[in-house]
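Bumping my old thread because nobody answered last time. Still need a sequence for this structure:
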């Protein structure tokens, strides 16, 4: 299975978890997902509290390649899977 296929499969599983991860865990997954699918942040920092936190988390991944972000996302999701699936 290719990295892209594995990433998509894991991301689909994460969306169907029964319990939502903590805010910090969720931001880590979100930021890796955005870095993996889009790359470096490409929007201005929003003003809303939640939106700003998400932007800051994503911006913190700046410079990580999309493939490395996919690998990190998969590793993080697998660590959290038994806790939230």
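Sorry it took so long. Here it is:
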């Amino acid at each position: 299975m290719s990295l892209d296929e594995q990433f998509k499969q894991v991301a689909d599983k994460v969306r169907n978890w029964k319990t939502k991860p903590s805010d910090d865990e969720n931001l880590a997954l979100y930021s890796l997902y955005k870095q993996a699918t889009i790359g470096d942040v490409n929007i201005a920092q929003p003003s809303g509290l939640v939106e700003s936190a998400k932007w800051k988390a994503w911006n913190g991944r700046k410079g990580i390649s999309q493939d490395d972000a996919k690998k990190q996302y998969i590793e993080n999701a697998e660590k959290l899977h038994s806790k939230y699936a």
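Residues 40 and 62 are 5 Å apart (CA to CA). Let me know if any region looks off to you.
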